[in-house]
Amino acid sequence: MMSSQESESDKMTNLPEELVVDIMGLSSMKTRAAVQMCMLSKRWNLLWPFLSALNFDLKEFNSGDPKQDKHSFSRFVTTMLNCRKAVNLDKFRLSCVNLSEKQYHSSIERWIIYAVQHQVKVFQLPVFSWCGSLVSKHIVACESLVELHLHLIGCSQLGLDIASESINLPRLQKLHLRSQGLMSIDFFKNLIWRCPLLKDLFLESFIVPYSSFISSEILEHLTFKNCKVSYKSAICGTGDNMTEKIYCPSLRKLFLLGEGLCFYFSEFLSECPLLEDLWLESFNVPLGSIIFSQKLQNLTLKNCKNIERIYSIKVPSLVSFCFVGLIEDVVVLADKVGSISSLIHANVSLRDGSYGSSFLTYALNSLSCVENLDLCVHKLAASSQFPSIYPTLHKLKNLSICGHCFNYVLYMWKYMPNLEKITLWPYCQHYLWSSEGLNRDYALLREIMKCKKLKVLEVVCARFDDQERQLMDHLRKLKDPKIVISNKQFKN
To answer: Does domain 319-492 have CATH number 1.10.20?
Structure first.
């Protein structure tokens, strides 16, 4: 009789060859693993030369001898490319930031030329300081490219040795550039202008020139991550010394990540009538900022500095709001925003609840129309400080809370008349529920189960220790079919 392992192996080997190639190509499977997978079947052994997605990662070679690993990696990539059939490349990813020795220069050059000659569509690779001519001759002139990711290593300034007329990327739609150096102004302008289909631009860790100018009628997604300006002023905004700015009237997503970039976005937002997503993270908010957008649907503010500098927020179409920061900051925002009738989803994570639950109650007034609320407050004040009046969340159907907030919700659940589901994370990574607290709240837990419209109380287990088992025992004593116990990772 065939064993279960043999049965599974037989099912795998009987998969159509086209499907196997697609699985290896469409997934994030590394090329070395894909070749090893092909060795499982004599029929599959003929498939690996037809792979259209190649993902080479030096980290897969970890014998303990870095020098030997680099040699093995280089030999594997070269052999793989030499044995491939003459099929075009959909993806070519080269992850080898430590492969900078001179002895590998010619190999890396051959790999790049190979990818370009085989009409690669998605290209991801490191660019070392000696690669400038390769970028100029091959990469920025690859007409088949749809998506390009370049990690610039040891390049003090990008674009100095690249002539503007050599840039020809007529099909490029997504560009991700990462570097620790200064970006050449002329190169950057020409790069944008010579990518007529570019819709997604991601700049990471660049020193952006003061007078940089991004002008694109079709750019839809713009991200600055950990970028800095090379002059004391901003790259976008108003002021006597501002000569140029960013102009992207079709922009739908704007991500500003990191505090080094001074970005006066107020005027910019007014010129982006189609903007739907605004994400500010670890961002230093400029004085007098205004968030005003008629079509903005998703707003994320994570660990931003100087939130009080926001003068006003007017987002009548907002559907989703995410905030991570101090409780006093979210109170400030509540003053600026007021109630948003269009809001459906809200995710609020507060680092310090020592200001008391009355502050949280005040902040929740802005979320009175929300349907789904994810709430996590670290160190929320004791129940003796809970206010007597709560905001009514009349539309709230789904509530996810951490252990810190459980007491708070137990006191205010009557102000959630349409609540259908509560997801409780009693042991999130910032909180451990005590036995004393559990015994104190046991009666209240039974009380909340009387809520007429409540259908599910999901309790998430993540620790599986004695303390958590005690909680499970208490829940089982209720013998209520509404209670569901599930296993998940720690809540962030």
So the answer is: no
